[in-house]
Amino acid sequence: MNLTDDFDDLLYGNASLGYLFESTGYKAIPSPSYPRPHADDNAHGAYSTERWGSKQQGIVDAIRMTLPAALCNEESCNTFCPDLADILYQFHLKHYSSAVTVSPSLAVALAVAMLAVLFRV
Prior knowledge:
Largest sheet: none
Strand content: under 5%
Distance between the termini: 33 Å
Number of strands: 0
Number of helices: 5
Structural class: mainly alpha
């Protein structure tokens, strides 16, 4: 990952994934509008991200997302899947070197496949 931005900006500023979600019309935490979850929010369940992501020893950068129930249906997937693919593609373009290239069509296919598994469509 190319870390040209400071960490706070990468985490919840204009260089963040949350910023891209907000720019597409979705609420996101963390993001410029919502930099931190409320104290009573439940943010558990990140074992796979922590265990297998590149922070410790893994070789894969990991992103954990929790989606609202309103996006977890086939009808919403028709809009959300392409949006998610574009958001992840834009994040990849901004933060990763050009040595690894992901085409927009591949990003859409991966997002649709991922959500299809989640929704069991």
